[in-house]
Amino acid sequence: MAAQILDGKEIAGKLGEQVRAEVKAFTAKHGVTPMLTVVIVGEDPASKVYVASKHKTCVELGMKSEVVRLSETATEEELLAVIDRLNADPLNHGILVQLPVPKHIDSEKVLERIRPDKDVDGFHPVNVGKLSIGKEHLVPCTPYGVIKMLEISGISVAGKNAVVIGRSNIVGKPMAALLLSRSATVTVTHSKTKDLASVCAQADILVAAIGKPEFVTKDMIKPGAVVIDVGINRLPTGKLVGDVKFDEASEVAGYITPVPGGVGPLTIAMLMYNTLRAAELQLQN
Ligand code: NAD
């Protein structure tokens, strides 16, 4: 039987409606509108598309949004000065520095400069640490979106075998932490994992975050498993595909996310959710 599709667009739409209603209530109650500032350095075409889409979604959900554009040759000091200004601005609640930044800028230093309660990407070491001890403060948007997708789709996590392929700080590691704190039995796999296929074939929930087109094949999937494809890969033909070979995987899986239209829309939805949450946190401080 073919797998049930987890429709990221539809789920993100529901989350967006919820955020829109909460933003309206927040603004009415506190007389201030949640605001996100995205900082982009340079002219990377993919980054420009992402930034435009974040700005548009903010405005659609009733939030304020500003984009700060710095040239490719901007110095690290200039970028840090922008962050310092935004950190101190009470009308700005969320700061996101679009990655990658040019090579002459130390991205770690930049991310650590953002105030943890304005860190809507959830990459600051304080937020990473909180997540690792089960205190979710501001959580990275992509893995958080996966969790929301599972919740909204009524897929339980507790007691399940979850296998995460990939151990990046942006997706794999926070994904594992979120699944663990929801009581899954979690295995994190990576490029050095031995016999990856048989490890994956034990998974009730399989999350692929590798960055290799159609890497996960049918033989790596347990019949009936929930398959979450985080990958976004552009083939030389221009076609977008995930890390999972969708057609054959959907013959075996119980649930599967498509690419595009799966995890991607959830990532933006969770950025909006985090901006609202950041505004709430700052009122408490
Ligand atoms: P990354 O390159 O930082 O990490 C990839 C991980 O895959 C590494 O930990 C590596 O060990 C592992 N890996 C590589 N080859 C492997 C192999 N042969 N076997 C097992 N593991 C292997 O990538 P990332 O930032 O985590 O992103 C992963 C993918 O997710 C990319 O395609 C990226 O574009 C996509 N992504 C999508 C969204 C979204 O919104 N949907 C957000 C972030 C990233």
Describe this structure in words.
There is one protein chain. This protein is α/β, with parallel strands linked by helices and 285 residues long. It has two domains: 31-116, Leucine Dehydrogenase, chain A, domain 1 (Rossmann fold); 141-263, Rossmann fold (3-Layer(aba) Sandwich), CATH 3.40.50.720. Helix content is 43%, strand content 15%. The protein contains ten helices and eleven strands. It has a six-stranded parallel β-sheet, sandwiched between helices. Strands 3-2-4 form a three-stranded parallel β-sheet, sandwiched between helices. A two-stranded antiparallel sheet has the order 9-10. Nicotinamide-adenine-dinucleotide is lined by residues 142, 165-168, 170-172, 189-191, 193, 196, 209-212, 230-233, 263-264, 267. Nicotinamide-adenine-dinucleotide binds next to helix 10.
